[in-house]
């Protein structure tokens, strides 16, 4: 595997082979790439389905969503069902620090890409297998997508409690969160490898990650055995847990501490509620969450969003306006911090993307790479691996590389 | 700072001083603690508000939610408004690898706990400041809680598009995700410090993290400048994007690839839809997401959940039952993998918790520590810092330690 030059960022010099598709794997490897790792995205000839799954693109295989999850990566197309294609992938992995896949374990084993086989090839390799379900459980090996995991893990169940019917978060939330956790785990393993000098295998199961997320939030009184009460955090499960209507839009106000709650009651002209036993303490407000929300609903409808924001700001009551997805593009704070960045993509033209949210004082990745068109760097990467022009031509001839 | 003995896990030997409350900081440091770091939770005399914010506990300051977010940590109570309390905290930080706070930056500066001041004390320190809003933007320094960030970042906006009114995810999702990202960033910085020998400052702003999450999902056609169409991933923004009713409950079915979609149409007895131009390809199904959902709604109501699951399993169509929050406790796969673990807490009695979702082949944290009662290890930790019994008594006398 090549030296890719200096990227900057905490993961500078970390080489990642990325055999993932859709969201869970790509957000993992993008998190590594954004922080300086050199990521090579290996695609099968049919390509990552996310290239075509979302509408609104300039060329058919470069959806905006694909671009967003695959920036800062280079791309190679290999048909690993062909022995020469698989050999090229193994040569890539032999020189890598990290191999990430979201292929089902049986498929990895068939291709000799399981952790044990690859440890023999590269003992320093960190092998991160993102799966739908952890090994050892009866769902292991089943196919899954985000809504399957939202359905099983209790994410949809939180809405059932809040609004009376199960729903999904309208994002691929469990994919996205699991990918972030996988990148976290890879960082921890990279740290350990600096101490031990040897790699390891990590398993990151989406269902367990999502169930752990929900349990941390909503196991609540059932954390005790026997339970001390029902599951669920009542503050979050109220039907009124939402931005609330003002006279001209919406506002979110969240007086949490006693001081904030008391300031809020003053602000809405109901100082007598400071002494109301339903609202006097944090635990009382939790137990009377529905009543507390009703007080807010009644008050907030009386003034405009701007008027309330001014009133709450003066009293240090946490409050904010509500942004639609489109409003994000105009949010003044995001403008201040240069959140939206312009990019000239070599084939897709002028783009905008959200910059990395986290900043590292020790130095950040300097230059961004454009999300690759399929096979964009196939020849370049094969050449870096030591393939001669004639060998590359032969791989292309058989369709093993494209 | 003490050696805390060998924990096992990739972060064994990493010493973390945790000046955080509620969820965003505690899930960050729990992620570090679960993977072997030694985390010392420093609390003000009034304690982390999460101790009392959730109902259902055996003792008033040990809510289930607090316990879930604070396992594997030791606790010390210091009044850092008193000089001796602040001095003890600085002595802790002098021997630490990581300092995590979710205190507003102005408060950190006032106490001399900002990155520059602490780098002078400990040049190897990784200083992770979790903030509501990034520095340099006009919202910087404002107070915030999760719903404020859900309101501003477009998370609530996704529901507006899906169901006609903004709502929050009924979890402290942006806190939780930002904390996971903060732990990820700390892992990356620990890795870099192995190379450079010096620490650094990391800023993790909740708003920017959440806006990046939403943008990756829903910038869509507005990733292009000028936009190629509206923002939003239409597949996720359908009002029918939810577990769908069967004759006796709910089911989630998610045929994504062409093969899965075609198998699904066969399974529901509508093979003619395989050739329907609305559904023949992934991009067509995306563009006709609403119609595609209507087909599912009509079909699924005809049979029971169990009958459908058997039919879909036979055809390898991704499908799953729907679990309420309570169902999670009985899920058979989670039982198989030992997801729910029993714990005997020294003061709270028999508990259950979700085990760490990610597994590391190179070794995991061996023993879990109980979530601390407030100040549970105050004396022990002060003694490890070199305070004599008389000095500890003096600190307790003034209320600087409790």
TrEMBL record, chains A, B:
Keywords: Transferase. InterPro entries: CoA-transferase_III_domain, CoA-Trfase_fam_III, CoA-Trfase_III_dom3_sf, CoA-Trfase_III_dom_1_sf. SUPFAM superfamilies: CoA-transferase family III (CaiB/BaiF). GO terms for molecular function: CoA-transferase activity. This is CoA transferase. It comes from Roseicella frigidaeris.
